[in-house]
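I am still learning, so can you show me any protein sequence you like together with the matching structure tokens, please?
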Amino acid sequence: MTSCHLLLARSCGLFLIATTAACSFVEDPMAKAVRMMTPYRIEVVQGNFVSKEQLQALRPGMTRRQVREILGTPLIASVFHANRWDYAFTIKRQGTEPQQRKLSVFFKDDVFERVESEELPSEAEFAEKLTSNRADNIKVPDLKASNQDLEKFRKSSPAAGVDAPADATGPAKTYPPLEPRAR
């Protein structure tokens, strides 16, 4: 009986090893679909975006309030650096490269003195960079009509003008008043 139990145990062990090895060769279609899916990544925007145009609007001698009206509230206004405001901006969007900008504004006697920053994009450049690398970027057609196209439209429109009914062959629709008439 011992040899029978030993043979049975070995057979079961070999069977389990063979079945687990066979499972590694069979590809589960659901597992493949899960690997292909990517999770949604939320758009993360931190700080204030400062454009080249905003930076050009700053003039030496402006008060802190005037600078705040142009650039917005600083991200960091430290007690230890009372004469410096730091602006930082970071944006992370799915399908585009993360963008990061830093800017420091310096004051002397509560009056704007100078600014230190890396090269800042204009508002148009920033907007272009947000959408240029996206996978779902769709080219929007140029919506301009030539004079010939406008003339064709004028000829095909009803002669009555803007107030013409939608169906030129039927009578104009009338609607009851919204409020009762005053007596």
